[in-house]
Design a protein that fits this description.
alpha/beta, 7 strands, two-stranded antiparallel ribbon, single chain, Rossmann fold, disordered N terminus, five-stranded parallel beta sheet, globular, 170 residues
Amino acid sequence: MIIVEIQHKGWDWDAVKSESWNEISEEFLPVALSWVRKYHSVLDIGTGKGRHTFFFAKNGFKASAIDLSESSITYVKEQIKEKGLDNIDARVEDMTELSYENQSFDCVICFHTIYHTSYDGVVKALREINRVLKDKGEAFISFNTKDNPHYVKEKTVDGYTMIATEGHEV
């Protein structure tokens, strides 16, 4: 068995200039719209600039946003004030050790985040998502694939995990 320790760190969101990070993902939009009709609370794991968190908060959800990146959470908190939203909790937190109570959320989104850890980290994160999700809740989790052209440009550490060698995550 190979044991790999990953030094977790968040993206440098101050360096991200693309406006696409401020808009809800087209890939996730159909799911988001279905959740708006039936749920009231959401956890956004790896919130980044908060695009999904803000969508749900504007639709009346109690929203919680977490990210490992200090710059992410600083930005989200600034936007909370600017937008006058009082239904968002934003914190720096690791998806493998969530501080929330069991069955706290109707739904959880982990959009292009879960694979930014080791295989063991993914397993821990999935357990945590299951723990904080209500019994009849739903989760949307996107995974990467080795067929992704970015995968081969990155350093792989355990056959499943890639470490960025350039870009916002370094």
